[in-house]
Amino acid sequence: MSPLAHVLALPVRAYRLVLSPWVGHACRFQPTCSAYALEALDRHGGLYGGWLTARRICRCHPWGGQGYDPVPGTPDHGTPDDSQSEPTTSDKRSKP
């Protein structure tokens, strides 16, 4: 995590420690906004991760969406990983 990401993660961690037990577990999205924020900051750094976090928090309102919303750049979000890559030449079968 970059130094800026560490600074931006402090209020999120404080929220999870102090306020989250009082607010309850009624998040509209999966993962929760605080878990999303920590993952976005860890994966993308302070600037882009902070932007993703702010955008996600702005979507969290009664008329907003709901459901599964992973951090962009994770394998669950459409980024190809090694298991879905093109087969190598040794894996391809030769035509007779």
UniProtKB/TrEMBL annotation:
One of its GO terms (cellular component) is plasma membrane. It is a peripheral membrane protein. It is found in: Cell membrane. Keywords: Cell membrane, Membrane. It holds the Pfam family YidD. Residues 69-96 are annotated as: Disordered. The keyword Cell membrane applies. InterPro entries: Membr_insert_effic_factor_YidD. Belongs to the UPF0161 family. Could be involved in insertion of integral membrane proteins into the membrane. NCBIfam families: membrane protein insertion efficiency factor YidD. This is Putative membrane protein insertion efficiency factor. It comes from Paracoccus aminophilus JCM 7686.
